[in-house]
Specification:
The chain is mostly helical and about 400 residues long. Helices cover about 70% and strands about 0% of the residues. The chain has 20 helices and two strands.
Length: about 400
């Protein structure tokens, strides 16, 4: 059955029936992705070069089977070349509740046709559904991060089950979703700011030359866009932490929370923990991107195919593993950020907070809450992918 599906796609592309797919034939199949013929042909030529092992400027059936989108076809069940090509470009863009560093690139045709905004809407709604589904684990993570490590708290010395049971006892089952509302609300402004800032920074980097943006330049533009978005929406991050940790009856609404937090320390309190949050952006991005490329290249060398593209499942696994490694490396900064956000009244800053954690709990204390944080990754990715796919179907991006 799988071979038959691959053969049907190959026959769909092989318009002249000569047993090989040329760049012009592939170009004709990419109208939705690239409106201009020159751009379609350029993209098609890159695909051909990636898997053309006999250098005959085309793909025969064996070369086609080895190419990355063969695996994507089997994983997604898609039959349209346009749909497969678009999904391949978005494969690593699913929301697991953490901030993305490098936003999607959209062609001028995609922006003009509405594909860009529909994809952003689909991603935003997928993120909201995914975050809502994994909210209990996220709240448990925040509670563990903010706790002081006593045996009576829902901290590292308590099991995850005991932590969840304690939250249910205190506020009922609905309390497991405390803070989820503001966590979902901030998706829209953060995504919009990041998208606009990313395009702006890319334009400033290339200037008037109109040349293609290089990977390291995308990294810089993405990091700056992420920092810009985080700076503007950071007060919502503080409110999300406070809403997660609130006791029954402490705040009547998000606005009541904001009012009481402001009364506690003025406007400056809404940027408490901002420094460790910003310090974590570049290391996380660098580790994530570097390891992602390293894992893919290692696989290609192992397979003896350094010039071709790895299978899509390799790219997905490499993306997940590199993201986890980035989170592990920068997790202490995220923990200190949460502690500072949750702190009532004055106190020390970043350095004194690190010193206090190490004195009380040792190095392990810097990774409090890592368990539930890792547990939510697989369900978050699965739910986000399924919702993203369904929303794109409802918005007419796929059939």
């Amino acid at each position: 059955a799988e071979r038959a599906r691959i053969a049907r796609l190959f026959k769909q592309l092989d318009k002249d029936g000569d047993g090989r797919i040329s760049a012009s034939e592939l170009s004709a199949a990419l109208k939705q992705q690239y409106g201009q013929e020159a751009k379609r042909l350029e993209a098609a030529e890159r695909v051909i070069q990636a898997s053309d092992s006999n250098a005959d400027a085309g793909l025969d059936m064996d070369e086609f089977v080895r190419y990355e989108w063969r695996d994507f076809l089997l994983l997604t069940g898609r039959h349209s070349v346009d749909e497969i090509f678009m999904l391949m470009r978005r494969a690593s863009s699913f929301d697991i509740g953490e901030s993305f560093v490098i936003p999607d690139d959209y062609t001028p045709e995609e922006r003009q046709s509405g594909v860009a905004w529909k994809t952003l809407v689909s991603g935003g709604l997928a993120g909201a559904v995914s975050r809502s589904a994994t909210a209990p684990l996220d709240r448990l993570k925040v509670a563990w991060q903010a706790s002081a490590g006593s045996k009576d708290s829902h901290g590292a010395k308590a099991s995850m089950w005991r932590g969840i049971a304690g939250m249910v006892t205190e506020g009922g089952v609905a309390s497991l979703w405390r803070g989820n509302g503001v966590n979902c609300i901030k998706i829209a402004p953060e995504s919009a700011i990041k998208f606009l800032a990313y395009e702006t920074y890319k334009g400033l980097i290339v200037g008037e030359s109109k040349r293609p943006v290089q990977l390291h330049e995308k990294f810089v533009a993405g990091a700056l866009a992420g920092a810009t978005a985080q700076t503007l929406i950071y007060p919502l991050e503080v409110l999300k932490t406070r809403m997660c940790l609130r006791k029954t009856g402490q705040y009547s609404s998000l606005f009541d929370c904001a009012r009481k937090v402001y009364a506690e320390g003025g406007a400056a309190i809404f940027y408490r923990g901002y420094v460790p949050n910003m310090l974590g952006i570049l290391p996380y991005a660098g580790i994530d991107l570097a390891l992602y490329e390293t894992f893919k290249q290692t696989y290609q060398k192992w397979r003896g195919n350094e010039s071709g593209s790895p299978p899509i499942y390799v790219s997905l696994v490499a993306g997940a593993v590199s993201s986890v490694c980035g989170q592990v490396a920068t997790y202490p900064l995220a923990l200190v950020r949460t502690k500072l956000q949750a702190r009532i009244g004055g106190g020390g800053g970043l350095g004194s907070m690190f010193a206090d954690i190490l004195k009380r709990e040792g190095v392990r204390g810097l990774y409090r809450g890592m368990g539930p944080n890792m547990l939510k990754v697989i369900p978050a990715v699965s739910i986000s992918y399924a919702t993203f796919d369904e929303m794109r179907r409802r918005l007419g991006l796929i059939k």
